[in-house]
Amino acid sequence: MENDELLEKLNNCLSKINNAFLLAKLTLVKSEEVQNIKQEINLVLQSYKSSFGEVEFREIDKEIGGVKNLPKSGIWLNTEALEKDLRGLYSLLQKLIIAKGGCQEINFVDVPELESTRSVAVSQAIKDTKVLLKDSPISAVDRIHTVLHGYLKEILKERNIEYVKDATLNQLFKNLKEKDSKLNIENENIKQIFNSMANILDKLSLIRNNESLAHANDNLLSIDESLLFINSANTILCYLNSKFKK
Fold first, then answer.
1. Is 116 in contact with 241 (CB distance < 8 Å)?
2. Buried b / exposed e across 208-223, counting CB within 10 Å, b at 16+?
3. Which of 57, 19, 62, 59 is nearest to 37 (CA)?
């Protein structure tokens, strides 16, 4: 019971940092607000001191030590400044959650080098995703969604298949599936799996819009949920990439 309570607290701490990163993108987070976040996290970790081993608690002490060094108040911080201040603490919280069984370490499918894309936006989103996956899966959710969305558009353009400008992931996928012979599948069982991907894509967009850092959302995915999202998107990307290799 205490472990479940601790995991809930640790995930809440991660959410606070995620929200700060979201505001920092717009330079809308103040230095004292970051200080308050660090102090709140410090109180949580101190109150559950007995739940951690000596090595874990030394890591906590090392990372949270800067709390006592109060920065100048009233400074608006950007993402770069926040990275320096909170990235280490964020990574530590993720490590503690995994250690307490909150999620399993997952060897996710690596983002494929998409052979058919020439889009600068898609290529940059792939680079961003690979970097963010190492430390912040929740931050990678929006990026992998961008990769998949942009990649589908690229494939449709190359195959001379028209699509609506503001088409959703699901609409782009259905358009490609219905109009390109490369996606004609004879194996009925595999065909059913493939057809169900349209529903998965629909849910990916819903989650990205309402439970990721794409917008100022109150409810964010946990680490394991973020990895499930990323792996699902990657599975679809890898399959499409294998079909449309040049």
1. yes
2. beebbbbeebeebbbb
3. 19
- Alpha carbon distance 153, 118 (integer Å): 11
Evaluate whether 109 touches 234 at the Cβ level (below 8 Å): yes
pTM higher than the cut 0.70 = no
Task: Show me where the domains of the chain are located.
Answer: 2-99, 120-243
Which residues touch 134 (CB under 8 Å, ≥6 apart)? none
The Cβ of residue 109 has, within 10 Å, a number of other Cβ atoms equal to 14
The beta-strand segments (E) located in 13-155 are 29-30, 76-77
| Tokens of residue 207, six digits | 């989650």
Report yes or no: 34 and 20 within 8 Å, Cβ to Cβ.
yes
pLDDT, block means (10 residues), the chain with 246 residues: 78 80 77 86 84 80 62 75 79 79 50 59 73 71 88 89 90 92 90 89 91 80 83 87 77
Residue indicated by tokens 């609409």: 171
CB 29 within 8 A of CB 20: yes
pLDDT (tens digit, 9 = 90+) per residue, 89-122? 887 887 788 777 765 444 444 555 555 556 677 7
* Structure tokens that stand for 216 in this block: 């100022």
Indicate if the alpha-carbon torsion angle 82, 86, 91, 96 is positive or negative. negative
DSSP 102: S
CATH number listed for the domain at residues 2-99: 1.20.58
β-bridge mates for residue 77, sequence order: 29
